[in-house]
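quick q for whoever's on today - can somebody do inverse folding on this one?? i tried earlier but teh output was garbage lol. tokens:
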């Protein structure tokens, strides 16, 4: 089996698009949630909250010809990937174009502006608003395809469109491609562009936060007074590489990916099951040849829904007990859906390298329905963490767990 290391990282998020900005907001306990006046036109939509990326600037290297097939999700994904390639020292390396590097990347859906263009065609019978790139922007694999074309990658393309586990599955499947010798390098991660339709999905389930006048106080994962999740957007990319290849070219190694597990509940589309949540963490530990006590920190999925928080915390407590520190990035960014697994992995690795881990903000009183865990609150915590775990759980009962090892 080949060993898999992380040699490049980047992301675009509601609290920043570089580590310095993100860390500043994490330490200041400042979230990226905003009131969305543009959503007032949707009269039956209860939530007016979201986590938009307000400072997004596409790469200055983009040309009109290169971007005409890109909607916002692809623009963010390719930009994040370009920055990750730069951090990996691969941005202008033409050797990645010989088939040794592939893409494993996902999003819940393509760009919804393009979806609406096709919807208008179906409703009105008018095709005049369509062009050759409309479907390319809409299709579920728009992000990985645009990444592959932009960087001229000729390896395998793995599309992971599994809602909240899109990015973590992208990372996991990329690691397996390298581990089993099918690729030497992989672009891995996920993205999502903000759309009111995605807020409406959760709104119909009465699962969105309606603290519309106090966006700084929500979401509230695991908290007694939470009232639901908030949708966000962004993109995150990890460059994964076979260890010997990375060492031969003198690459900076940020972490080693040592464990990955994925399974499904097989019972209900929207009701998470603690038993299979626990099982996926066990699968990841088995893959890494580790025990629960080896994990020093857990990055929780932590969506701030009553059913999800309860199931996840119970599964975690059954396996780890109450002594493993845990927190969730979604208290800052909202739920970035297809991007969350990559953003949380990136932030987790950056924190592991520095020995400081962010708190869950707005967690004032743990809900009685949530298990007794070591929830990080306050000003965060200094932890010397040799291993961290990052978990994500999605509609359809799809579960993922990643384990990263600190690189000394």
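ok took a stab at it. sequence:
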């Amino acid at each position: 089996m080949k060993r898999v290391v992380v040699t490049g990282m980047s992301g675009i998020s509601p609290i920043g698009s570089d580590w310095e900005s993100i860390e500043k907001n994490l330490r200041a306990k400042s979230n990226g949630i905003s009131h969305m006046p543009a959503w007032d036109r949707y009269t039956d939509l209860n939530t007016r909250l979201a986590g938009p990326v307000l400072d997004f600037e596409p790469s200055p290297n983009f040309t009109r010809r290169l971007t005409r097939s890109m909607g916002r999700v692809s623009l963010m994904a390719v930009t994040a990937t370009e920055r990750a390639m730069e951090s990996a020292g691969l941005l202008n390396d033409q050797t990645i174009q010989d088939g040794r590097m592939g893409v494993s990347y996902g999003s819940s859906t393509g760009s919804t502006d393009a979806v609406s263009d096709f919807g208008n065609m179906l409703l009105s019978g008018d095709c005049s608003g369509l062009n050759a790139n409309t479907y390319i922007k809409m299709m579920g694999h728009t992000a990985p395809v645009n990444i592959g074309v932009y960087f001229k990658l000729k390896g395998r393309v793995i599309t992971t469109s599994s809602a909240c586990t899109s990015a973590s599955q992208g990372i996991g499947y990329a690691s397996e491609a390298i581990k089993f010798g099918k690729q030497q390098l992989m672009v891995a991660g996920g993205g999502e562009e903000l759309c009111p339709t995605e807020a409406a999905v959760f709104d119909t389930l009465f699962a969105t936060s309606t603290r519309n006048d106090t966006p700084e106080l929500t979401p509230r994962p695991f908290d007694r007074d939470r009232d639901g999740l908030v949708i966000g957007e962004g993109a995150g990319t990890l460059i994964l590489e076979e260890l010997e290849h990375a060492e031969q070219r003198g690459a900076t190694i940020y972490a080693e990916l040592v464990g990955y597990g994925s399974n499904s509940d097989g019972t209900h589309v929207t009701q998470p099951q603690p038993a299979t949540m626990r099982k996926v963490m066990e699968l990841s530990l088995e893959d890494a040849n580790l025990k629960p006590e080896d994990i020093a920190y857990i990055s929780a999925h932590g969506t701030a829904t009553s059913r999800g928080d309860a199931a996840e915390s119970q599964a975690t407590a059954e396996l780890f007990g109450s002594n493993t520190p845990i927190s969730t990035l979604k208290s800052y960014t909202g739920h970035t859906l297809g991007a969350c697994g990559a953003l949380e992995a990136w932030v987790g690795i950056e924190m592991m390298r520095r020995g400081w881990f962010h708190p869950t903000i707005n967690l004032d009183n743990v809900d009685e329905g949530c298990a007794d865990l070591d929830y990080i609150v306050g000003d965060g915590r200094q932890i010397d963490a040799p291993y961290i775990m990052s978990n994500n759980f999605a509609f359809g009962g799809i579960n993922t767990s990643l384990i990263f090892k600190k690189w000394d």
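fwiw The longest helix spans residues 72-87. also The chain has one domain: 4-406. so keep that in mind when u check it
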